[in-house]
Amino acid sequence: MIYPRLWGTIGPVTLGRHRVERPGSQASSKEMGMSIFDPSAAEFWTRVGVAIASAGLIGFERQMRGKPVGVRTSILICLGTSIFVELGVASGNAQADPTRVIGQVVTGVGFLGAGVMLARGGVVTGVTTAAVIWILAAIGACIGLGHHAAALVFSGLTVALLIGVGLLEGGFNRLRTGVYAQEDAEEQRAAGGNVNSE
User: 19, 35, 82, 122: which could form a disulfide with 144 (CB 3.0–4.6 Å)?
Assistant: First the structure.
């Protein structure tokens, strides 16, 4: 399969916040990309700080609910994904497609998410935790491509969804009291009676 070349014939190509110059131009993509891994640069610490803040917010919510993916794991998933994406962009050249790194990260994170799902007594648990792992990787990819504000917004939305839907579910359970709860109990007894008689 032939992949499109990253180098335009007119000028540089922009991948996220990275401007990749054509071969032979003043600054190579390697020189530009590796400067983002310099711990003395403000950009390095900005990326690390956004990853810690974004993932820490989500991880704190999960940890407070007693879920398996807490603050530490969340930060490591997000920061690791951002590093892989940054490396892919930094090493991009005429023969490489740095966006393939994102595809490989999605595959790897999918396996990580599958590891937290369990089936017990016909009930599958851990699906929300697996989805959180995936969104953490997506937020890390946003950070790796330089979309820091979007990463923070996605983190806030994720926490709002996790808390908001939890509150809605609790509200619906409280609504199921009184007449409706009695009808449900009668239906369950009737269904149980039919099963036993067969």
Answer: 82
Q: CA-based Rg of the chain, rounded to a whole angstrom?
A: 23
pTM listed for this prediction? 0.71
Nearest to 50 by CA among 149, 172, 118: 149
What residue ranges of the chain have pLDDT lower than 50?
Answer: 1-13, 20-30, 193-198
Tell me the residue type at 117. Answer: M
Residue 182's alpha-carbon distances to 169, 176, 177, 186, 194, in angstroms, are 19, 9, 8, 6, 18
13 φ, ψ to 5°? Answer: -110, 145
Nearest to 116 by CA among 99, 104, 131, 101: 131
Could you report the per-residue pLDDT of 129-157, keeping only the tens digit for each? Answer: 999 999 999 999 999 999 999 999 999 99
Count CB atoms within 10 A of the CB of residue 159: 18
Q: What's at 145, amino acid-wise?
A: L
Residue extents of the structural domains in the chain = 13-197
Closest to 109 measured CA to CA, from 82, 146, 70: 82
Helices 127-144, 42-64: axis angle to 10 degrees equals: 170
